[in-house]
Specification:
Layout lengths: L2 H13 L12 H47 L3 E6 L4 E4 L1 H7 L3 H4 L4 H4 L8 H9 L4 E9 L4 E12 L5 E10 H74 L5 H9 L2 H33 L7 E4 H16 L4 E6 L4 E4 L1 H18 L7 E8 L4 E7 L30 H11 L3 E6 L5 E8 L5
Parallel strand pairs: 7-9
Antiparallel strand pairs: 1-2, 1-5, 3-4, 4-5, 6-8, 9-10, 10-12, 11-12
Length: 456
């Protein structure tokens, strides 16, 4: 024991009353040991808790590493991670496959060693882009592999540490051959889609042409039949007059000629001749008008804008479509006189035929088949035409899609879904509007608004 300890003990014993002994650590020893043991228990419990937390963090770290390794191995794009100097630090399985080299060989290389001399993007270009703090976006690289050169489309960015300091570069690339194949497949699919669309548009045109031909044939049938009947009548008249003139030239006269004149009904023939010719002329003029309407319908000149009466065009569309398909339909026609609009009459005629055809299709099989067409001057310098049918109306869930291309509620083979879409586009090109609503009493109402012609 040191001199200082002995001196201190002597001083303590001198200070105690006489007859009392100093028992070193007598009652205090147990308390000290208890305190030490408690402290050891607390320290041990803390160590156990830290050990559990450490094991949990290690398990989470291993799980994260496994997850990241799984992601990197499942990537089909080439991934290269290097430091700012360009030394490769990590690559994924796709890079190993692309370069035909294991990870242990690649991490010894510099990024410059993998770039071919003819690569459009060099390592200096990469460093310059990174120094400007810009992303590498869709840049073409050409890498050298053990077998051949590998053109790659690369995207990349700077890699930062936990303190936000730039520590490296990450590059992700996809072989351009795969991109070209994807673009080629996309272009082929787009071309097939265009061809299918053209076929559907052609089918819609042919359907419209079929309705047009049926309507025109029905309309032409009456005047042509009239002309045909009057031509036969004129042929009979011609035979009578020829027989009568032959008799006159043959010297027949007097009672014999008068009797022949009565038998051949020469007086009646002469009296009916003018009416027969007028009927033929009227029929021919009707055919001419129908052909003129047909030519206007087939016109595709978008610049042809003219003022025309709407009522005759609506009647023509109604006659060409409705009479040939549904003769028993009830039609209510109420269009104001001198209702003049501006546009291409042939295109508007096509729109009207489509609207009438849709109305007839909607009323197929219905107990009441009535078509109501009304036309009035609208607000401002417009004309409004409403076509109402007595069909089931427009369901709320399809009201917003009826003008979409290829949308149809008709059975397969009955419609292409382009009629209303084409009509909507034509009306828009004319500066008008086409709306579809339901009538309060049932059925659908198609409202066509067109610019009105200026009146002098």
């Amino acid at each position: 024991m040191s001199k200082q300890s002995n001196s201190a003990r002597s001083d303590l014993e001198t200070a105690l009353p006489e007859g009392e002994l100093l028992l070193p650590f007598a009652g205090q020893t147990d308390e000290a040991w208890i305190a030490v043991i408690k402290k050891m228990d607390e320290t041990y419990a803390e160590l156990v808790t830290q050990q559990v937390e450490l094991e949990q963090k290690n398990a989470e770290l291993e799980e994260a590493q496994t997850f990241i390794a799984g992601l990197m191995s499942s990537m089909t794009d080439v991934l290269i991670a290097c430091d700012l100097s360009g030394r490769i630090e990590q690559v994924n399985l796709a890079a190993e496959r692309a370069f035909q080299r294991p990870l242990s060989d690649l991490v010894r290389l510099h990024l410059r060693d993998l770039l071919a001399a003819e690569s459009p993007t060099s390592f200096e270009d990469i460093r310059a882009t990174i120094e400007r703090r810009e992303r590498i976006s869709d840049r073409e690289f050409i890498f050298s592999t053990l077998i051949d050169q590998l053109p790659v489309s690369v995207n990349g960015a700077v890699r930062f540490d936990s303190r936000g300091r730039a520590v490296g570069i990450v590059l992700v690339g996809r072989p351009i051959g795969e991109l070209r194949k994807a673009y080629s497949d996309l272009a082929a699919a787009h071309e097939r889609l265009k061809q299918t669309q053209q076929q559907l548009v052609h089918a819609e045109k042919m359907a419209s042409l079929g309705r047009l031909v049926a309507g025109v044939a029905h309309e032409l049938n009456n005047p042509i039949s009239f002309v045909y009947g009057n031509a036969h009548t004129l042929k009979r008249y011609s035979g009578r007059l020829t027989s009568y003139l032959d008799a006159v030239h043959g010297g027949v006269s007097g009672p014999a000629l008068a009797k022949l004149q009565t038998e051949l009904k020469i007086d009646t023939t002469l009296a009916n001749m003018e009416g027969t010719l007028d009927g033929m002329l009227e029929g021919a003029e009707r055919v001419r008008d129908i052909v003129a309407d047909l030519r206007r319908f087939s016109s595709d000149r978008r610049e042809a804008r003219e003022a025309f009466e709407l009522a005759p065009l609506v009647r023509s569309a109604l006659e060409w479509v409705a009479r040939g398909q549904m003769p028993a339909i009830e039609t209510r026609f109420d269009i104001a006189e001198n209702l003049t609009v501006v546009g291409n009459s042939g295109h508007i005629h096509q729109v009207l035929m489509n609207l009438v055809q849709n109305a007839l299709d909607a009323m197929e099989g219905r107990p009441v088949r009535r078509l109501e067409i009304t036309g009035r001057s609208g607000e401002g310098e417009t004309v409004t035409l409403a076509i109402r049918d007595t069909g089931p109306g427009i369901a709320p869930d399809i009201a917003s899609r009826i003008f979409d291309p290829f949308f149809t509620t008709k059975p397969v083979g009955k419609g292409t879904g382009l009629g209303l879409s084409i009509s909507y586009r034509i009306v828009q090109e004319h500066g008008g509007k086409l709306d579809a609503t339901n009538h309060p009493d049932g059925g659908a109402v198609m409202t066509l608004t067109l610019p009105a012609a200026q009146r002098d």
